Amino acid sequence: MLHEKTIAFIGAGSMAEAMISGIVAAGKVPSNQIFVTNRTNTERLQQLVLEYQINGLASQDLSLKNIDIIVLAMKPKDAAAALQSIKDSLQPNQLVLSVLAGITTTYMEQHLPAGQQVIRVMPNTSSMIGESATAISAGSYTTNENMLQAKELLESIGEVYKISEDQMDIFTGVAGSGPAYIYYLMEHMEATVKKGGLPEELSRDIIAQTIVGAAKMIQQQGETPATLRENVTSPNGTTAAGLAALDKNGGGKAISQAVKHAAKRSQEISSQLEGTSTKKVQAV
User: Fold this and answer.
1) Cα–Cα distance between 77 and 63 in angstroms, integer?
2) Are 118 and 46 in a shared domain?
3) Is there a domain that residue 274 lies in?
4) pTM for the whole thing?
5) What is the tens place of the pLDDT at every residue in 59-94?
């Protein structure tokens, strides 16, 4: 049962905190069974311990002996060192999850004991409030039982989508990085509305509710975005004028390019890491 499992986060950044916050709030794993580590920032660890009542300790002090699920949540560039540091302590029944952009299951398997169970995970920072869109892809040796267990764990931070690993980069481009695109859009809407005379906080609330309402329409109405857009666009009306300005200024293209470039960067990270790994193997 998930409630009996222990979880260790290696890395204490914003994504680790978002996931910890969601898991603790959902109550599926008791906070005293959650551990978080980093290499040097003791102040950051203490902050997380006080906020979520979990266990914080330096990386070198973490014993994996009684840990069921290990979550890799450091920067992607530190993945190889982190995998090397835990390699000799792992048991076949332990599950390794990676929330790192561009880190493939193949890459993890190459750096861990033969047959190690790994899952690639891509959540987003809406984990903090239990509203993440999270994708999972299983490694070669991961059991169905552990995939279900991972799904149950990640459902505490939002919706979970099982996809093939070759779809993970484009998922990263739209869902992993997507909240930032929405915040960017909101920034510009807010600045414009303020110039129109509405107070800042009121502007922010109005914009947020508008986006929440539009998203719920998609979820609840069963219509395509194109259909819903057409339904609210009267000829020569205000919405038509706004959409015409978006088209004229490349709004649609900008959104598409944001998704494509984020996905491309995820691919580049994978290629760079795999190239480094190959060079190290050849050198040996």
Assistant:
1) 23
2) yes
3) no
4) 0.86
5) 888 899 899 999 999 988 888 899 999 999 999 889
Sign, CA torsion 31/149/2/174: positive
Query: What is the DSSP-derived secondary structure letter of residue 96?
Result: E
Burial of 283 (0-12, 13-18, 19+ CB in 10 A): exposed
Helix axes 238-248, 251-283, angle to 10 degrees: 40
In a domain, 272, yes or no: no
Do 53 and 142 belong together in one domain? yes
Domain that holds residue 207: 176-262
Tens digits of residue pLDDT in 193-247: 999 999 999 999 999 999 999 999 999 998 999 999 999 999 999 999 999 999 9
Cα(40)–Cα(7) distance, rounded to whole angstroms?
20
Per-residue confidence (pLDDT) for residue 210, from 0 to 100: 97
CA–CA dist 240, 231 (Å, integer):
11
- Output the CA–CA distances (angstroms, integers) from residue 273 to 51, 91, 177, in the order listed: 34, 25, 20
Q: Tokens in use for 142?
A: 């991961």
